[in-house]
Design a protein that fits this description.
13 helices; 37% helix; 4 domains; alpha+beta
Amino acid sequence: MDNLVLVTVARALDQGLAGAVLEEFRQDSRDRFRFRWSLADRVLSTAVSMRPEAPWIARPCKRAASGASLPGSFAAVCRRTLLGARLREVRKPTTDRWLEFRFADERRLVIELAVHGANLVLVDRAGCVAESLRNPRSAAVRLAAGSLYAPPTPPASLTDPFACSADEIDAQLTELGSQGESPFEGIRRHLFGVGTPAANLVCEEALRSGESHGRRLTLRLDGLISGELIPVIEAPEDSAIPRAMDVSSSQLWPWQPKRAPREGQAWFSGSDPTETAGWWYESVDAQRDRKARRQTLARIVSREAARTRQAVKRCEADLRGFKDPDRYRRWAEALLAGLSRAVRVGEGVQVPDPENPDGGDLVVPVPPGRALPKAAEILFGRHRRALRGSKRARERLDGLVVRAADLEQFEERLFEPGWDEQRITEQIRRLRLPIALEPDTRSGREASRRAPPRIEGVRVYYASTGEMILAGKGGRENHRLTFKLAAPHDFWLHALGVPGAHVILRNDHRERRPGPALLEAAAVAAYHSEFSKESAADVQWTLRKNVRKPRGAAPGTVTLKRFETLRVKPRLPG
């Protein structure tokens, strides 16, 4: 989070939340937390994102996810300790990206927002660390439970612009200029807490006004601290803020530039800096989530395309095996027509060729000891099967070729701007992929389009060697996974003798014996069973074609024609 935006956000939080009572502390996701405050007759919310690459704090602009808070240990400790506490003030040092909520009972919640150093720290009445969200090695001593809390220290090589006069800043920039560094780089790289947007604005204003860079910077810092300046978003004028904003063509400025917005763009700001920051950072997170979701989908589609291409090669090999099915018919007819003149020749029988007008002979492969009428019957059967197999293989090959082309085209177009979530969902369903976005129901259509990708009843993992591992989530899902999604040559696994998930290890190369990935798939099967808490468990495995569903049995109930057993430790792939 931009430090100068954080200065104004912290000031607005202090003014708006002082005296409020903390009514709820919930963890919406792995990295996102939400505070709900009660002040007089108003209910106020504050969101904190602990994403390592982009942490922030602001007023949330989207609704909280339905359901209970995630069962995180840090959130549980904070609920037990802080619920009902009255907030006295929000305090932030001007230089570094951290602030703290100080409560009336002398407890503190410190929010550290440095990139790749984001953390939440609960500090007790004595000023000691009671609990922290993360415990990185670099801060193990500083955040040790029971030790006196010390905030992160800024780099000693950087200058604190809030503690310097304009002349001191100008002197430093002049010295850096003598070393070949521009004022922009000098401000951005050597003045702690002043980011790229602020450095751009200071250089623009200094150029227009003729004042020194130090003078313009100190004036702007004073305006941010006093609340005279507030952050503003420069975005396309048709942006539907906060629902839809393209952050790639927008910019969050710590204060409004002294110029008109660029062509086709306009200034946007909320009722206070916390709302403006919420619009921006939630839009940044949403765009990052969409990109990550599409990258995940692209990986899955790419694997499915590779799998389809392998199936095309196998189908082509099958077609080569069905080449010239009429030879079986000719051999059978020759055997029946030449029973009286048949002569054993090695591994075959020599008989006259009825289709040869010159009266030549034909050697028909017939195993020793097999009666010639029986051999002819078998050859007629092979002819019929070859005709059916050739037709089916051709139909399957045509379908696989079209599917491979569709998958490759979908993978290429997945990141095109015109492909919104609805089109992606429709394409996934049309291609019958074993994945989908949330169901597009009438009641939850808008919410479903914003939802992250999920597997429909199937958990997806990848072995260390790259094979896909699929695990069912219930009886019906197990049935669908085993009998709809799995191929006959895939490996099927299940914990021995206890309820659990059906697990499929993809076997695209049709190996007769599995590789090392089987042990990882067996560990997944044990993990998703009643053996999950055990140190070791027995897991049965076989080929999917050996699995049958008894007539009238409940979904998920199966019998095995044959199987083998592995003993593994229950765990998920790394």
